[in-house]
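User: My instructor asked us to take a sequence, write out its structure as tokens, and then describe one feature of it. I'm not sure where to start. Here is the sequence I was given:
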Amino acid sequence: MIISLAGSSVEPWYMDITEDGGLVCSTWGDKIARVQVDTRTVAFNKSVPQIEYPCGVAITPDGSILVTDRYNNTLHLVSSQGVWVKQLWSVPSDGDQGGPLRSVSTDGSVCVCVTCSGCVYILDCL
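Assistant: Let's start with the prediction itself. The structure tokens for your sequence are:
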């Protein structure tokens, strides 16, 4: 099934599907959005000030949202309501210790996914 959000205020970029059939996505305009696809209602479409360039998104088993920030080379945890919770890690710069995923860069598009058990995978598409 193809679902068009044409005419909506949401222009999805990277996305993930929620357990209830919703869609969580990063959008043009540096926002994070949640759309209930069957009714085409937008629960939220807002900027998260701590994230400058939201890229990849993934839903965690508890419904929270993982968001990669391409501009700041970071991974953030956002609540299911689109409220920033915390930064989980950062990619090291020269001389910086960075976070635990030291081999990840964000020169290209960054995708993130989460397994049912909560394991996080990140793909750096250069």
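For the description part of your assignment, you could build on this observation: The first strand starts at residue 12 and ends at 17. Try explaining in your own words what that tells you about the chain.
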